[in-house]
Amino acid sequence: MGRQQLALEPGTSIGIYSAERCIIDAIRLRHREGTDLASGALRRWLRRPGNHPATLLDLAGHFPKAQPALHAALEVLIG
After folding, report:
1. Each residue's pLDDT tens digit, 4-26
2. Which of 49, 50, 47, 45 is nearest to 24 (CA)?
3. Which sign does the torsion angle of CA 77, 45, 62, 57 carry?
């Protein structure tokens, strides 16, 4: 979910996560990494042009424990 392959050179690639997946992971791990990291990442993501909260919520649907917290954070930030 939210992972892409990035080719480095012929025959070598690495997996990287999308910004949306990173935000969801920050929210899922906020007890370990802190809520400031998760809320800051979400705020920066919302400021970037072309991002849609519905896309983020769709991906969060695959992570049931993160979805309520993400929904609540979006309600606060978007109002």
Report:
1. 899 999 999 999 999 999 999 99
2. 45
3. positive
